[in-house]
Amino acid sequence: MASERQINVGGVLIGGGAPVAVQTMTKTETADLVATMAQIRRVADAGADLVRVAVPRDKDVEALKTIVRDSPIPVIADIHFNYTLALKALDAGAACVRINPGNIGGPEKVALVTQRANELGTPLRVGVNSGSLPAHLRELEFENPVEALVCAAAEWVELMERLSFTNFKVSMKSTSVPNTIASNRLLAERIPYPLHLGVTEAGTKWSGSLKSAVGLGTLLADGIGDTIRISLSTFHAEEEVKVAWEILKALKLRDRGPVLIACPTCGRLQFDMDAVVAEVERRLEAYEDPIEVSVLGCAVNGIGEARHADFGITGAKDMGMIYSRGEPLKKVPTERLVDELFAEIDRYYAAGKTVVRDEAQAADAAAWLEENEDATAMTPERLATMEAQAARLDEEVSPVAGRRFTRA
Ligand code: SF4
Q1: In the Cβ-directed half-sphere of 27, how many Cα atoms lie within 13 Å?
Q2: Domain-wise residue ranges, the chain
Q3: Is 268 in the pocket of ligand 1 (CB under 6 A)?
């Protein structure tokens, strides 16, 4: 289902099996070079592969020339509906230009843009929004918004092909998560071009992240989508990038930085885990390696489902334990848990990614774990494991084992 075609956006491959690229859009006035470049550097540091800037005026085109030259990542120009700005953005060196063929003045204007893009070898993004469908699809939009969106995208794809232009990706944006999922599934079956995914105007950091995770996550899990943008109502574009990465990491599509595992806490919690998790998350931002770090609210569950974590901590009232890959490392006072955890992580890297174990401390920690563990307690993790096991049909213990119906 992944796109067959691949395009190259300023050195970042999109589609055709390339890793799903993360992009975002600056929220600054593009012509404000200082603010725009500062934001581009921040999103690049956060892991954006591509950045888009709005180019609604000639003075933004002027700024674009400098931005393209100085940006650490390829820059996409968003010209919305003005074809002359598309031509100028191409000449300014944008790595890609986003157009909506439905609102830039007809096929002749589109042809001028594709001709110039062809000459320069620059790809285009063909964008369709549920809010700006062509007039002849408005009735269909009322009856079947998904089909209307897909029809609009398919029509623009046909126009591009008639103009002998195939160096493009397609985006269909809707504010509705079900429509985003359904329309991209349909379009992925119909066209071979890379797809840019996003839930448009998704909302605040909280609700927008969830909507995007559900919509984009569903598609990405099906293998649909070649580049993603999380649209959040925040001036901090790097937050969009962080959410995009969490989605890709959760689906194991790409690795970037550590993975934090934390229990949901319950009535057994014995220390201030909220603050500890937040501090661990903050300090992990300084690491690039995809290690797994786990925080468990109590030791009743032993090391439990966090057994595979590279490093972890679990706490009790005044003491806690640091462990690595299921093995206790040391027992430390609760208030030193985070510092000691990071001391162990740093020791691991200093030793060339080898866990450094002090046997006496490890034995002390193992004894502490034994005292604090209760193998009979019904913890949330144990209940989840039991439910998962019960859901699995085991023919050996099934009441219908050996009673398969067969026709004589
Ligand atoms: S029982 Fe599980 S969920 Fe509850 S605090 Fe302990 S580790 Fe966390």
Answers
A1: 12
A2: 6-250, 259-391
A3: yes
